[in-house]
Design goal:
Oligomer: single chain
CATH topology of the largest domain: TIM Barrel
Helix content: 25-40%
Number of strands: 23
Shape: globular
Distance between the termini: 31 Å
Largest sheet: 9 strands, mixed
Low-confidence stretches: 1-8, 186-194
CATH superfamily of the largest domain: Alanine racemase
CATH architecture of the largest domain: Alpha-Beta Barrel
Number of domains: 2
Bound molecules: pyridoxal-5'-phosphate
Mean pLDDT: 94
CATH class of the largest domain: Alpha Beta
Number of helices: 12
Length: 456
């Protein structure tokens, strides 16, 4: 694959910020002591030396705080709200334990994620499973595990689930996934008449209503309610408000058309987070108000009983809890063009920059009290010119051996990591109260070859 380097941008100027100025994108326990970055009471420079790099570091206090914020600011407005952590953002056995301890539910997107929940001893009735093409084997695994809810995405799946559940004498609670025709982005929303999405049943052409009617009539299926998810990294809360208007109006149609109440409404995840200095995402408190009060008000407007609710945050639980530590290997200065700072990781541990042109903040953990006086592009070690971790990063003056910290990498980095170039995937450590522990060990070369078969 030949990828171009980053698209040409105006030359950036260094922002002279220190670690203290980067607080909005760092874990809540981040601080500077003796010129070093500390997180969770642990010196990131010592940690990099002891545990090696590349390394994902997650702050347990920030994860717990974010989960608790969701529980607090949703249930403040209505007691029956499930906070369902979307495991796709970051999943490990230790993470699942925290989700259980913080009184949250778990959203699984595959049989593999469900297997994690089972192995971690997570209560199956608090597991919800979604996905646009669950295999028959995965549906059977869900039933055998006794998961709380399955989000049904298409007619074929509904029929399969009905047959599998009936054969087991079970009645599985399901939510019907609806595409409300509201497409969110960070600034605005647009109505998507065509509802061009691979997920769920569109409201137009009556597909969603047809799905609800079939679900009500099928054996083995207990139609509990509706599910939607309008997107990710959403800053504008009015996108949620608009989608809620649309879906509660549909609840009214269901009740009038079938006589059945919608007992559960799940509005998905998607709240945005700060990756860079200009980002000002909405707070969990405001999200809770807009979503929960919004549902209550719309229900009142339509004369409906307020249903049980669910929200499914992923990114906003873990993104700012995590950083990635790398060691600077080489520095390449191309006069009048660009300086590349190469690190011992890259697109295999963070694909988001190459995939979405995502932007991150970076700093040198061993020079955390110094201002970021230069601009450099942080490059990975893979055989791709597009293997960039941070484009045009303001950075303290780097030298080989420095510990480079990329901020806000707790979501969709480890979970999307690969072994490209046979790179071992970094381990994950949790830090808390001055201690650190492995929650996912760094891979070894043996791990890489574990499933290889040498024939002949
Ligand atoms: C159905 C569903 N729920 C929840 C999430 C979590 O979204 P986020 O990480 O943006 O909060 C996703 C992710 O895209 C999703 O597909």
């Amino acid at each position: 694959m030949a990828a171009k380097p980053s698209t040409p941008r105006p030359r950036a100027v260094p922002d002279l910020k220190t670690a203290a100025d980067l607080a909005p994108v760092l874990p809540m326990t981040a601080e500077v002591r003796d010129g070093h970055l500390w997180i969770g009471g642990v010196d990131m420079v010592d940690l990099a030396r002891e545990a090696g790099t590349a390394l994902y570091v997650m702050d347990e206090a920030t994860i717990r705080h974010q989960l608790a914020e969701y529980v607090r600011w949703t249930r403040f407005h209505w007691p029956d709200v499930d906070v369902v952590y979307a495991g796709k953002a970051f999943l490990s056995l230790a993470m699942i334990r925290i989700v259980a301890e913080e009184d949250c539910c778990l959203l699984c997107a595959s049989g593999g994620e469900l297997a994690y929940a089972i192995r971690a001893g997570f209560p199956a009735e608090r597991v919800q499973v979604h996905g646009n093409n669950k295999t028959p084997a995965e549906l059977a695994e869900c039933l055998d595990a006794g998961v709380g809810r399955i989000v049904v995405d298409n007619f074929e799946e509904m029929e399969r689930l009905s047959a599998l559940a009936s054969a087991r004498g079970a009645s599985q609670k399901v939510l019907i996934r609806v595409t409300p025709g509201v497409e969110a982005d960070t600034h605005d929303f647009i109505m998507t008449g065509a509802e061009d999405s691979k997920f769920g049943f569109g409201l137009n052409q009556g597909l969603a209503m047809e799905a609800v009617k079939r679900a009500i009539g099928l054996p083995g299926i207990d139609f509990e309610g509706l599910h939607m998810h309008i997107g990710s990294q959403i800053f504008a809360l009015h996108s949620f408000a608009r989608a809620i208007e649309v879906i509660v109006a549909f609840m009214r149609e269901i009740e009038s058309g079938t006589g059945q109440p919608v007992r559960m409404l799940d509005v998905g995840g998607g709240l945005g987070v700060a990756y860079g200095a200009p980002d000002e995402p909405s707070t969990v408190k405001d999200f809770g108000k807009v979503v929960v009060d919004g549902i209550k008000e719309e229900c009142e407007k339509h004369g409906l009983a307020v249903p049980r609710m669910a929200v499914e945050p992923g990114r906003s639980i873990v993104a700012n809890a995590g950083v990635t530590l790398y060691t600077v290997g080489s520095i390449k200065e191309i006069p009048d063009i660009r300086t590349y700072v190469a690190v011992d990781g890259g697109m295999s541990d963070n694909i988001r920059t190459s995939l979405y042109d995502a932007h991150y903040e970076a700093l040198l953990a061993n020079k955390a009290d110094q201002p970021r006086e230069m601009v450099a592009t942080v490059a990975g070690k893979h055989c791709e010119s597009g293997d960039i971790v941070v484009n045009d990063a303001s950075l303290q003056c780097p030298e080989p051996g420095d510990v480079l910290c990329v901020c806000a990498t707790g979501a969709y980095c480890q979970s999307m990591a690969s072994n490209y170039n046979k790179q071992v995937r970094p381990g994950v450590v949790f830090v808390r109260d001055g201690q650190w522990r492995w929650v996912i060990k760094r891979e070894t070369y043996d791990d890489l070859m574990r499933n290889d078969v040498l024939g002949g």
